Records
---
Amino acid sequence: MADLHADTLLWGRDLFERGTQGHSDVPRMIEGNVALQVLAVTTKSPRNLDLERNDDRTDDVTLLAMASGWPVATWTSLRERALHQARRAQAFADRSDGLLRIVRTAPELDRFLAERAGDGSLCGVVLAIEGAQCLEGDPANVDVLADAGYRMISPAHFFDTEMGGSAHGMVKGGLTEAGRQYVRRCEARGVLVDIAHASPATISDILAMAERPVLASHTGLRRTCDNTRNLTDEHALGVARTGGVLGIGFWDTVCGGQQIGHVARAIADAVELVGADHVALGSDWDGGVGVPFDASETASLTQALLDVGLDEAALRAVMGGNVVRLFREVFPAGA
């Protein structure tokens, strides 16, 4: 199984200790048979988040960085925060004696999956960034972050950025000229453009220019739950037409309730709209939202999806097969 979004790195927990708080860590990934987990990095987050309108004048991550003892450079540089988190992830991998692997290329993915077929205790992670504010206005920083191992970058998180508008921003505009350069650089480097949290105008602009598959890592559909956070049918179908994937989230804003049945029905809605080959899991574990189960209980979703009518082929695709296909297609072919 594979999941497209967890914020676990942000909170400073030891990934090798089974937590009593939060949702995901290596022991719980092993218990839940989660082979691949995308670990997302947030570099700036406004205080008192609002679903509809946020500006960039406040930032809770600065306080977290100071309180957690991050390097002084991270207190003022959003790019340095992303680079620091990539180094932390690598430090965990280095400590693991091969148990935890950071997957950066298609060959690395294939090697990991081949080895995991014989050892279910192996865990693969992919690094992602929420919000292109960490590019600090310069699309060339895509290369810096790609070199650090990041393989997914979204144009915006909870506020508008120099690259494009957020669904929760003040202006909610489309891609800027710098944003267009960011998309092209991502495509050239094997980095997925993630439209989760992007404004409708930015999503339309990305889909109009995309030459590689586009991803929505943790999202929902407005047909399931009609709000600013979720995708219209047009945008969801647009992602599928690029060959991309919709990661359906597990919290009430995107799936309409707080029970596992709500998650299953939201996934079934997406399958009905775009087809089983373009739907995946996008939990938002450790993202400050309530979800009905943690990583250790992921297998419980299997029965819930059977109950809402998914067959075995669709189940295999949604629970991990589509993510593997997407990563194989987009990730770099070599070092």
Note: The chain is about 40% helix and 10% strand.
---
Amino acid sequence: METFYVYWHPVLGYEAVKKGWSWPALFFGPLWAMGKRMWSLSSSIIISIIVISSLEYVFEKVEIEIMATIMFYLRFAYFILVGIEGNKWRQEYLLEHGYELIDTIQERTKDSAIAIVANY
């Protein structure tokens, strides 16, 4: 069982967001954000990855290995951060765009969580 936050919008309907870790955000960061219509987050992730990767490349070329290694681990840590915070960022996005938190529910899938809340 997972914990889901179920939101409702008068025009767009229901959305459910799982509490905690987001595997899709970890593996598909900017694509995941685009799929959720979080355009500014998607852009921020892309820009951050480009900046960190560019710095890593520059440090490798000028043979400052310690900094290149730090940039490699920083990029890795950034992906972990997106996985940890992704669902929280999704919740904030929904609230900013007119959704209202209806209930917090324990269910196996987000669709079943929405179905239960919709039938109140």
Note: The chain has one domain: 2-118.
---
Amino acid sequence: MVGKQVFFKTIFSLLFFLLLSYNCYPQSDPPIDSDPNRNWDGITHWSRYIVISPGFMGPNALPVPEIKKGLVENNIEFELSQQNHFSKHDKTFNLFSRFYLPFANNKIAVELYMVPVEYFSMDTNLRYERKTFKLEGEGFAVGDLYFSTIIQLLKNHKSLPDIALRLACRTASGGKFTAARFTDTPGYFFDVSFGKKILKNLKQIENINIFGMAGFYSWQTYSVSHRQDDAFLFGFGADINTKSFSISNAVAGYLGYCQNLDRPIVYRFHINKNAKHFDFRIGYQAGLQDLLYNTINFSVIYHIKKPNSK
């Protein structure tokens, strides 16, 4: 009889311990950390708290597109860059790769580019501001793949500038949405760019190229009120070209309509050293609005001139 009492007491104690353990240690992660700084309502999934806009994500999530300057280039190009992004609360280092292929007598080109790997380190203030899942603030991420088509509309006209149309798409292949590094949503943009060479054949300068672009940029969000953000895309600048060097200055950006730090504007400067098969570039980008990073990049561009190129 005593043995049965001991047995039932032991079973009861085990069941009580298991029930207590179940209540104290949930079997899966909650939708979001129950931190008072997040104002979590206890129900909404953590992904709804991350704001998908340039000012609330990493520097490679929604970058400002490069200006195409109205030309389909004559060369097949392979580019590899090392980029360093700095802000007050975030340091990011990444590789950048690009492939460019013209065809149809250099009237059309396709371009693919992406960030194959990114390392990031954010401080606590920025992790709270961006509402990263479990306050994730350091690690590695793989970026989105972009692919675009560039179509030459006008070239070598006596008085009008060169004009090109670009149609581009961003896939949702990037990682680390939990750390607000990439959006995990698709997007697209299209623009018309132009370029016109002036002041040709000066003593030390071959020409000065004035260029610009105007277009439309759109990306998907998780917002209930705005399923996607739409923006006016713009840019303008000038190149100084010599036989072996080119110096470029440009301002570019896009203006979203949600007004949640979705209006990034950047200034870009780079120097290009031209060679027979390799170009070497050093560049600098300053964030003027919303995308507040200072970026230094070093690029090597291998190019093959097509046999039918003039």
Note: The radius of gyration is 26 Å.
---
Amino acid sequence: MKRIFILAGLFISLQLAAQDSNGHTPVQIFSADKAINANTTETVGKGKMAFRVTHNFGDVGGSGGGIKRFFGLDNASDVRIAFQVGFGKKFDFIMARSKGAGGQQQLLEMGFKYKFMEQRENDPSQPLSGLFFFNGVIACNKSSAFQNLDNTFNNFGDRVSNTFQLVLARKMGNVSVLLSPTVVTRGNAATYDQSTFFALGGAIKLPLVANRLNLLIDYFHPFRKDAVKDSFLVKNNIKFYDPLGIGFEIITSGHTFRLNFTNATEILENRFIPRTVTTWTNGQFRWGFTISRTFTLWREKKGS
């Protein structure tokens, strides 16, 4: 097993060395670290820190929305505040806090993004960008006194969840696409639920106004067992749906602003992949936005 990791590390190192020495310009595929719900292959850059605030409101329509709740703007379903620091050209460290919208709340997140492959202009040997994403999330809210619930924490491990994600992206002309196989593991799950999920995500970016306005669409399909779906429907009258996000990205000289619409109530992959229970067809989608600002923490020395 050690030999496999050593060989894999050597292969990645050789790939990165080859990319840096071939003289081709790297391609920026997306404008930010996320589309709507999906991670992209973009990193902030060495010595820089991105400060991001993501906010999901309540349902636009349905029984939880409408004019009485100002189409969801009266409610905040989830909020995430994140700091993303580039410790290398292709390595970012992430610290974040999310409100949470389900049984697990007051969520502390730590993670990283590592870009191991980069698309290059006019270089057929590097047609894709590839990135690994990982996070660990701890739910800090009080445990329920009842057993077999989403927020039943019998030990510390029950509070922990993780996301492992491979992101592959390519820019073709002005159109950017990505594919993201994802695995989510949870320390706590109901006895009739599954603790590990595989999901397949995808996203596309379409320019509307050059360098100013983009249309973003992303989608995830969690591969949940039919027996689990039936159990939730019978025991809790809960039906799960695939997360679908549609948004507009506005780029200014200092900020990247996204106006999002999604049926995913929660923001973290650890939560919206296994537990999206609202659907567009019932008006159960919500406004949301992301504001991002990047700061320079330190500068590289010349020649480094």
Note: The mean pLDDT is 87.
